[in-house]
């Protein structure tokens, strides 16, 4: 290869570029990114940036000058021609020998009528738009009690706002972390005065005389007053520019276990759907650590220096709510057993199993107890070795 194009300049793209140079690649590297800012710690979008405790500059990871990359910033990717080996950048053809697809995700679009005071939250720009409105508001309504919704509820509470959190499921995050963990988390929010309502569905948003949102209407007919509404209903892989490429986009950018998409094309980070050898199933992981590690592996795949058994990853993420740190190592998806390892003195620690093997450990205020299980998750030890099994 003489030239590599990296589509997406966030942390997965940066990690790929670093690994290419570390491994001795001396050809041209071009990075194409719609965001002019460059990589920043995205976990801080719903934490420090939104709260105003941190500025974008303080969470930015600069591209090192010694990587010698050509960066095309503030431009949109519009297409990929595999036969011609080019990506389209706003009408311009950019040729490549190797391509890293690392365009990440975007917030799922709000299904409700657009109006002032209604936000989604995924990027630093989103946080900058929401922050002053959140500061000026009194009543905040959040639609969706996933991680973003829960973290923003915590920030809004810290700012002294009245917070209503609406969730369609009966227990927040039960699909991800199980009923016990979800109930424990819900209890923390309610103990802080958040009006967390589960099993409810939003019918629509109501605008006031000025055209700005004034309330949220539930399918039950109840209306909830709102100065600001955050629609936090998940994210979608940023694959629109690949629509006519012929690639399989059914679950993000579909790869094999080695992150390969096509000849000389790999994917990494939030957008990549690959078969994780550790779990023997297809996964798409939207976490910082995974993006760093997968970006480096994808670069090695282009160079042919990768582990041929595939990219085996133990996903890790953390969340901070009301000063309580939630940590999770592994993947709970498809778990059929769990065991509560500790539920005392504000600590909560749970192990998850699948077919009798440990697949994940999650905890709140559990400190190093979560991370010490990482090696056990990687080895997929019998769950019985961790604790007595509790059937779901």
TrEMBL record:
Gene3D superfamilies given in the database record: 3.30.390.30, FAD/NAD(P)-binding domain
Single GO term (MF): oxidoreductase activity, acting on NAD(P)H
A GO-annotated cellular component: cytoplasm
Needed cofactors: FAD
Pfam families: Pyr_redox_2 (PF07992), Reductase_C (PF14759)
Keywords associated with the record: FAD, Flavoprotein, Oxidoreductase
Keyword match Membrane: no
Domain FAD/NAD(P)-binding stretches: 3-295
Highest taxon of source: Bacteria
Residue intervals of the Reductase C-terminal domain: 316-384
PANTHER family per the UniProt record, alphabetical: APOPTOSIS-INDUCING FACTOR 1, RIESKE DOMAIN-CONTAINING PROTEIN-RELATED
Name of this chain's protein: Ferredoxin reductase
Native source organism of the sequence: Acrocarpospora pleiomorpha
């Amino acid at each position: 290869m003489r030239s590599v194009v990296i589509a997406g300049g966030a942390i997965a793209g940066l990690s790929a570029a670093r690994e290419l140079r570390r491994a001795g690649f001396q050809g041209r590297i071009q990075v194409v990114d719609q965001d002019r800012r460059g990589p920043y710690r995205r976990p801080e979008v719903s934490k420090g940036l939104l709260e105003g405790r941190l500025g974008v500059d303080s969470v930015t990871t600069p591209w090192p000058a010694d990587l010698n990359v050509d960066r095309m910033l503030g431009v949109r990717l519009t297409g990929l021609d595999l036969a011609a080996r080019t990506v389209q950048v706003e009408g311009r053809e950019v040729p490549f020998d190797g391509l890293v697809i690392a365009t990440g995700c975007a917030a799922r679009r709000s299904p409700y009528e657009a109006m002032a005071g209604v936000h989604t939250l995924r990027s630093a720009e989103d946080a900058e738009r929401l922050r002053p409105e959140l500061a000026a508001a009194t009543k905040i309504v959040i639609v969706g009690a996933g991680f973003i919704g829960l973290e923003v509820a915590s920030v809004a509470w810290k700012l002294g706002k009245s917070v209503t959190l609406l969730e369609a499921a009966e227990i927040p995050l039960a699909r991800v972390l199980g009923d016990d963990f979800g109930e424990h988390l819900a209890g923390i929010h309610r103990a802080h005065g958040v009006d967390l309502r589960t099993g409810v569905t939003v019918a629509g948003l109501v605008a006031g005389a000025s055209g700005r949102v004034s309330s949220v209407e539930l399918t039950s007919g109840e209306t909830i007053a709102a100065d600001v509404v955050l629609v936090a209903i998940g994210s979608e892989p940023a694959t629109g520019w690949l629509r006519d490429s012929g690639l399989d986009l059914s679950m993000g950018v579909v790869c094999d276990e080695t992150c390969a998409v096509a000849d000389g094309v790999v994917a990494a980070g939030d957008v990549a759907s690959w078969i994780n050898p550790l779990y023997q199933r297809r996964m798409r992981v939207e976490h910082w650590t995974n993006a760093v590690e997968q970006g480096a592996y994808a670069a090695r795949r282009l160079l042919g220096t990768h582990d041929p058994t595939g990219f085996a990853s133990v996903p890790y993420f953390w969340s901070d709510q009301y000063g309580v740190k939630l940590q999770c190592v592994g993947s709970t998806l498809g778990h059929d057993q769990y065991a509560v390892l500790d539920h005392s003195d504000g600590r909560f620690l749970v192990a998850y199993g699948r077919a009798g093997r440990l697949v994940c450990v999650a905890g709140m205020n559990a400190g190093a107890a979560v991370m010490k299980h990482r090696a056990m998750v990687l080895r997929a030890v019998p769950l019985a070795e961790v604790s007595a099994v509790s059937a779901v």
